[in-house]
């Protein structure tokens, strides 16, 4: 019985010694002044890129026996790419991050409507 009591006491002594983990490094709080990453509208130039078109001749022909076939030739133009407006900086690079501007796909701003 004595060995059983001694074994229980030694197990109890070993389980009672839990180690408490040391606290990890505390996060460092750095106050960085807020910087403006966008470009103000006053520093930009509005550039309009014209539409790209393709011109071709469409020929339709209708059989007209016993006479010559009836031919119709039309010059047609279709728009491949719509005209658009971009904004460039003083170096000529296109800028898309513009401060306080809501630009729709046509390049017009809500302030100019």
From TrEMBL:
Q: What is this protein called?
A: Lipoprotein
Q: Which organism is the protein's source?
A: Algimonas ampicilliniresistens
Top-level taxon in the UniProt lineage: Bacteria
PROSITE patterns recorded: PROKAR_LIPOPROTEIN
């Amino acid at each position: 019985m004595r060995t059983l009591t001694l074994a229980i006491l030694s197990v109890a002594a070993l389980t009672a010694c839990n180690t408490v983990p040391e606290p990890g490094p505390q996060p460092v709080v750095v106050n960085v002044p807020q910087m403006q990453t966008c470009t103000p509208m006053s520093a930009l130039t509005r550039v309009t890129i014209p539409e790209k078109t393709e011109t071709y001749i469409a020929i339709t022909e209708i059989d007209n026996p016993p006479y010559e076939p009836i031919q119709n030739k039309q010059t047609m133009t279709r728009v491949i790419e719509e005209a658009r407006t971009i904004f460039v900086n003083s170096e000529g690079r296109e800028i898309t991050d513009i401060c306080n501007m809501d630009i729709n796909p046509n390049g017009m701003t809500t302030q100019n409507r």
